[in-house]
Amino acid sequence: MSPRGRLLLFLPSAAALLFLLIDGLHQLPGFGHYPGPYGYVLNGVGVSQRHATNLVTAVNFDYRAFDTLGEEFILFTATTAVVLILRHMRGEREQPGAADTRRENASEALRGLALAFVAALIVLGGYVVVHGALTPGGGFQGGVVLAAGAFVVFLAGEVVAMKRVAPEKLLELGDAAGAAGFVLIGIGGLIFADVFLQNFLDLGKPGSLNSGGTIVLVSIAIGIEVAGAFLLVWTEFLDQAVLVRSGGDEGE
Amino acid sequence: MNDVFQAIAMVSMGIVGTAVVLARDPLRQVLILGVYGMTMIITFFALQAPDVALSAIVITTAGLPPMVLLALRKLREYRKEHDQ
Question: In degrees rounded to 5, what are phi and psi of residue A135?
Answer without folding.
Answer: -125, 165
